[in-house]
Amino acid sequence: MNVFSYKQGERLAEAFNRRGVEYLFIGKSGAIFYGFPDTTQDADLFPAKNPENGRKLISALRELGCDLTPSLEHDLIAGKDFVQLRGGPFDLDLVFAPDGIETFAEAQSRSLLIDGKFPVASLDDIIASKRAANRQKDRESLPRLEAFRDYLRSRNLIALPTNPSQPQS
Amino acid sequence: MKSEFNQLKEWEQEFDAAAKRSLRERMEYSFIYTYKPVLDDAQFRSFNTMAEYKEWCRKNLPEYLGYW
């Protein structure tokens, strides 16, 4: 089992960009792109939910080495709210209708391109989504995640530097 | 039991430490493999609605995983 890595993130972003897949990183994996120090197993993606995007997504996932059955491909095009992928190059959760977020377009308008290549939902949207989902693991992680958002704001940052050039005191 | 103030100071120290690492390093430390029973036992699952997904979690996942 390979865990998600920066290199795989690059491969994913390149494959998705080539096909014009509309998506955002979301969830704890999205927060990690902003610099949130925590652990997770899978990458959470918020793809736009429409048949055309579903077809592009299938093509990109195939390129990445995901083993997609005809049934799964049907689901990705038909428009499910949630698809969990295991058994590919890394674990992936596709959340087409995250709690607490009205539309993909709205979330995209508030998103940020991290390191010039990773489109990530805003921290406010990530927090709103976790608050609305209200799972035990969300309730446990929310105070620290909100403290991280406040930490960035207190330093006039929207994300931690992706490549800090000098050690900070 | 940590006070709220001490907890925040501790978190800020963790955020400061993260700020000294590159995104590549931060991702290396953050994405880890932990087997989750039931959840990781199928190649894929899809749900029509988030409500359906949550109901599946409630019925099938151990409580300690924190998915409900």
List the helices and strands and how they pair.
The complex is a heterodimer of chains A (169) and B (68).
Chain A: H1 6-19, E1 23-26, H2 27-34, E2 43-47, H3 51-64, H4 70-78, E3 82-85, E4 92-95, H5 104-109, E5 112-114, E6 118-120, H6 123-133, H7 136-154
Parallel strand pairs in A: 2-4
Antiparallel strand pairs in A: 1-2, 3-4, 5-6
Chain B: H1 4-19, H2 23-30, E1 44-47, H3 50-60
How many beta-strand runs of chain A? Answer: 6
Q: What is the chains' assembly state? A: heterodimer
Topology as H/E string of chain B? HHEH
Work out the strand percent of chain A.
5-15%
Average pLDDT of chain A works out at: 94
End-to-end distance of chain B: 26 Å
Helix content of chain A: 40-55%
Q: Architecture of chain A in CATH?
A: 2-Layer Sandwich
Shape of chain B: extended
Q: In terms of per-residue confidence, which ranges of chain A show pLDDT below 50 for 5 or more consecutive residues? A: none
Hey, which two chains have the biggest interface? A-B, 52 and 43 residues
Averaged pLDDT of chain B, please?
94
The rough form of chain A would be described as globular
Task: Please tell me about this protein's structure.
The complex is a heterodimer of chains A (169) and B (68). By secondary structure, chain A is of the alpha+beta class. Chain A is 48% helix and 14% strand. Chain A has helices at residues 6-19, 27-34, 51-64, 70-78, 104-109, 123-133, 136-154; strands at 23-26, 43-47, 82-85, 92-95, 112-114, 118-120. In chain A, the strands form two sheets. Chain A has a four-stranded mixed beta sheet. A two-stranded antiparallel sheet of chain A has the order 5-6. In chain A, helix 2 packs antiparallel against helix 6 and helix 3 (51-64) runs antiparallel to helix 4 (70-78). The radius of gyration of chain A is 16 Å and the shape is globular. The relative contact order of chain A is 0.17. Chain B has three helices and one strand. Chains A and B meet through helix 2, helix 4, strand 3 and helix 7 of A and helix 1, helix 2, strand 1 and helix 3 of B.
